[in-house]
Structure formats: structure tokens, C-alpha cells
# Entry
Amino acid sequence: MKIPHLCLLALGALLFWSCASRYSSPILIERGEGRKEWEREYFVVKESMGIDKRLKDVFKQGYIEEGMTNDMVNLLWGPPDHETETENSSIWEYYTREGQLITRLIWKHPDLARLKGYEGEWVLDKIEGDRYGGSPAPTSSRSSNYNN
# Structure
């Protein structure tokens, strides 16, 4: 009787660990829902009005770039491990499980909102550290390492 309970407990712990490890992966695209190509396509079609076409193309490939909104980056990489916000800027930091900085993103409010109602939106101003978030660099302007 004790062995089946112990096996179930071990299986549950293993399942929990496998689910939780995705959110601490050193490859940031694995943390967000944007690792799925259909999620990126949906966002570009439904949620990205007023965003530059070049940024949409980079987003569809699964990469981030200066000028993207915080919603775009959050979809690709998930929420930051540490966030600091002031009135004029915001800093997102992503770390490995060992506490090593992967990437630091510095956000600002745009000079001109892309659409009415988006005046408080954050736009990516600067990327420090690994701009690909642990992913391999794209091999061409049309390629993606994330076509799931």
C-alpha cells in the first residue's frame, strides 16, 4: 500500500518539476507562449495595429528588437524575473536558475502613442546582454528557430 502512494508522490513531484522548469529555462523563448508559432501569428493579426511591419516580422520569427511593446516581449519571453519601474522607465531582467543575468531590457514611454488609448504603453528602448535570450541568432531575415 505504501509503495503505490510513494510512486504517485514521486510522479507528481516529477510532473511539477518538469512544468516549473520551463519558467526558469535559460532559453527565454521557452518561458513564454510565443514559442508557439500560431500564438505569434494571432498576435500580429489581432493585437498589433500601429506597429511597424518590420517589427512584426521579427516578432513572428520569435525574436525581440528595440521598438517592440511590452506585450510582444511578454508573449515571447514570459514575465521578467525582476522588474524595476519608475515614472519614466522600466527595467526587466531575466536570470538563469543560478542567478546569472541573461538579458536586461530597458523600457520607455514612446514620444507618440501608436493608437489612441495606448498612451501609457512601454516600448523597448535598449537590450543589454544576450539580445537573443539564449536562442541561436537567426540565420536570415526570414528564418526562425521556433516554428512549432
The chain has a mean pLDDT of 83. Helices lie at 2-22, 37-46, 53-61, 70-77. The chain has one domain: 2-129.
